[in-house]
Design brief:
Length: 270
């Protein structure tokens, strides 16, 4: 079995959904070691808040350029292994949501290999089934393949048993097909609840959100490359988790320049 170590860490919880002014209608890294065994039902789910929360990092930042929404999320949910940034890492983590293949993932992988950057790819089961060569390449080139559910539902709107099935169906498929065990999960649409976070943890997973995302997912309305490059560079902060979508032509085209210029600004990537 292949193993890998990521970069995030653990402390605190309560549930309170906060409105924010930057919640991309999208999907969306934490540290820990891949578990030898997936365990379930370690947290009592009774009494946990089931309120649907829609995550977004917001635009307000602290003196270190860390979005306050991401900072507050970690403070609230680290005891449930929920993370929006890597508090004990100075490095930036690039994450990509893989809902469907639009022909750009190979180019993204080429750039990551050239720049010696490891990324996290959150995959749906359908994506993995249709693109086994890309999944194998991600694994072989040292990237992290992570879980984005089977059917992309809003987790607070489904039963506990259905949540577990959504997670473990993908988990078992990847393990059986690629001899690879995942331990990072991203909630579809960024919609979660305290109870859903606990279910994910009970399945042996950490929940990974993000500390920066922008509107890159609309393939019919791709953002300007120069403007997007500046946005990504200006958002850099220690422990950042970037959410990008691999369906984006803009992202595929600017990724190398973004990595170079963020490094020039004094940051490094995983």
């Amino acid at each position: 079995m292949k193993k890998l170590a990521l970069l995030l860490l653990p402390a605190l919880l309560f549930c309170g959904c906060k409105a924010n002014d930057n919640n991309p209608e999208s999907d969306s890294a934490a540290v820990g070691k891949v578990n030898e065994e997936i365990t379930t039902d370690s947290i009592d789910l009774n009494g946990l808040d089931e309120t649907l929360c829609g995550y977004g990092q917001g635009k307000e930042v602290d003196e270190n350029n860390l979005p306050l929404g991401a900072k507050q999320f970690n403070e609230q949910y680290q005891e449930l292994d929920g993370y929006a940034y890597s508090p004990d890492s100075k490095k930036i983590t690039l994450t990509f949501d893989q809902g469907y293949e639009n022909g750009y993932t190979a180019k993204i992988l080429d750039t990551l290999k050239e720049k010696k950057v490891s990324a996290v790819f959150f995959v749906l089961k359908d994506y993995a089934e249709k693109n086994p060569e890309l999944i194998k390449r991600m694994i072989d080139e040292g990237h992290t393949v992570a879980n984005h559910s089977t059917n992309h539902p809003s987790f607070p709107g489904i039963s506990v048993d259905d949540m577990k099935e959504e997670i473990m169906d993908v988990h078992d498929y990847i393990k059986e097909t690629f001899d690879y065990e995942m331990n990072l999960f991203r909630f579809p649409k960024g919609e979660y609840s305290e109870k859903a976070l606990a279910v994910v943890k009970n399945c042996g997973y950490k929940s990974v959100f993000w500390s920066y995302a922008y509107e890159d997912w609309d393939t019919e309305n791709q953002p300007d490359e120069a403007a997007s490059t500046e946005k990504l560079i200006n958002a850099a902060h220690e422990g950042a988790i970037y959410l990008l979508h691999s369906v984006s032509e803009t992202n595929a085209n600017i990724l190398g320049d973004v990595i170079d210029r963020i490094r020039e600004a004094g940051f490094e990537f995983n």
